[in-house]
């Protein structure tokens, strides 16, 4: 499942089939469906990445990190610290 190729509507927001979400640009594995949860944002929401090298992060502002593909640098959005479904979890 390709992640982050927004073209007029995010097709994976309400998709909860088992699988791995990959970068739309290079196919690098990013997130597991086991880390996906329902959220009110228009994007799919995940609590964690598949592996430590799945994404690269840099601080954009307090509480928000800019997230890119760990392999090719494709922009994936943000990690919002302490905004996950449980206390202390992030939301990607």
Automatic annotation (TrEMBL):
Keyword match Nucleus: yes
Cofactor(s) needed by this chain: Zn(2+)
Pfam families documented for this protein: SelR
Domain of life: Eukaryota
Reactions this protein catalyses: [thioredoxin]-disulfide + L-methionine + H2O = L-methionine (R)-S-oxide + [thioredoxin]-dithiol; L-methionyl-[protein] + [thioredoxin]-disulfide + H2O = L-methionyl-(R)-S-oxide-[protein] + [thioredoxin]-dithiol
Gene3D superfamilies: Peptide methionine sulfoxide reductase
Gene Ontology molecular function: any one: peptide-methionine (R)-S-oxide reductase activity
InterPro entries given in the database record: Met_Sox_Rdtase_MsrB_dom (IPR002579), MsrB_Met_sulfoxide_reductase (IPR052150), Mss4-like_sf (IPR011057)
Biological-process GO terms, alphabetical: innate immune response; protein repair
Residues passing through the membrane, by range: none
Places the protein is found: Cytoplasm, Cytoskeleton; Nucleus
GO CC annotation, single: cytoplasm
Similarity comment: family membership: Belongs to the MsrB Met sulfoxide reductase family.
Purpose of the protein: Methionine-sulfoxide reductase that specifically reduces methionine (R)-sulfoxide back to methionine. While in many cases, methionine oxidation is the result of random oxidation following oxidative stress, methionine oxidation is also a post-translational modification that takes place on specific residue. Acts as a regulator of actin assembly by reducing methionine (R)-sulfoxide mediated by MICALs (MICAL1, MICAL2 or MICAL3) on actin, thereby promoting filament repolymerization. Plays a role in innate immunity by reducing oxidized actin, leading to actin repolymerization in macrophages.
Protein name, per record: MsrB domain-containing protein
């Amino acid at each position: 499942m390709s992640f982050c190729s927004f073209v007029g509507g995010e097709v994976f927001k309400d998709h909860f089939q088992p699988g791995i979400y990959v970068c739309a640009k290079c196919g690098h594995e990013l997130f597991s469906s086991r880390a996906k949860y329902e959220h009110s944002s228009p994007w799919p929401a995940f609590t964690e990445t598949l592996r430590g090298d799945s994404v690269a992060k840099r601080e954009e502002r307090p509480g928000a990190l800019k997230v890119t593909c760990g392999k090719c640098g494709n922009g994936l959005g943000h990690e919002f610290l302490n905004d996950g479904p449980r206390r202390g979890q992030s939301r990607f």
